[in-house]
Design a protein that fits this description.
Subcellular location: Secreted
Structural class: alpha/beta
Shape: globular
Number of helices: 7
Pfam family, one: Por_Secre_tail
Strand content: 25-35%
Protein name: T9SS type A sorting domain-containing protein
Helix content: 10-25%
Number of strands: 19
Keywords: Carbohydrate metabolism, Hydrolase, Polysaccharide degradation, Secreted, Signal, Xylan degradation
Length: 389
Amino acid sequence: MKNKSTGLLLFLVLFLSANLYSQQWQTATLQHSSGLREYSIYVPSNYNPQNPASLVLTLHGLGDNMTNFRNIGFDVLAETNNIIVVCPQAIADPFAGTSWNSGAGLSLYTPNANVDDIGFLSSLIDKVKQNYSINPNKVFACGFSMGGFMTERLALVLNDKIKVFASVAGTFGNAILPVAAGTPGRPVSIAHFHGTADNTIGYTTNNYGSSVDTMISYWKTNNQSVSTPVHTLLPDTANDGYSVDHYKYTSTVNNSVIELFKVNNAGHTWLSSQNDISYTQKIWEFFTRNSSTLSINETSASVDFSMAPNPATDYVEFNFSSNNPNFGSATEIIINDLTGKTVLSKTFKPVDRKYRLNLRENALTSGVYLVTVKTGNGTDTIHKKLIVK
């Protein structure tokens, strides 16, 4: 009897735990020019408006739906990483089933070509930002198959709102290729995952859009990336018949990153923790690594300053050069973290062209910061990197 009671209690605990995540998924609607649109949204149980969350947009494939696609696991990551997850619903095309206007299609037909999905997804991001506290530098998008094609299109035309992208088994759609050139307007960090045995959206050729290599080549040109990537082979940890070649392209002139995960022998599927690679986990890692939009570019002017020690622990002392009298007057110091948030702003007057800043008193924790110093009359603005241990 005791064993039965223990078993029942364990069952109830597991049942309640399993249903916690599903209960936090809510279905909502948004009125848009394309009609009344549906989406699922997951808000972590520890959401706090004082701590802006990341927003991850997840786009399902052709013929799929938001309820099914929300099972890729971002809700689990949300609980420990402060993520709000949104899974929108595509509209049904008369011939192809639920489909995004991604540009993916055959030569004579592109599903839902007249549906304003770009406008819908843009409005959806705005609505979530109105209802929740979202870090604007941590708005991400990913998708599978047709959703992957849509993610690539978003990277071209909606990268002002969405900062980092990841597509799985979806490239540039046929209808996008003629107009793709010049559309991003900025370097874009993007990851791509694709199986070499994908018979639906082929790795080298597919009927609906570009090859993987053509797509990667486009992003390399757009981002001014290095021609030769860093190539590694991911550990072969699972007996699944797959192996993963990882290619990473960086740029010497900006902070953009392109990563390609070429999954040998994998088909048209979303791989999980049971495989050599979990797409959801790798996508989130890519998002977090590349979500800092603040560029740490140091500049100089007719007057300069130094900071010591750097790296610093308790304090940092600013020493200003003597060739500009402006730094003998009121001087403004602004310190931003890597998200672009201003963590300190103050005006001071150097004494003997020196100023000591107590890091602990000003709550500067360990990290990398961009220090901006402006003269009293604003004629000189200088940026330097500060590392706090």
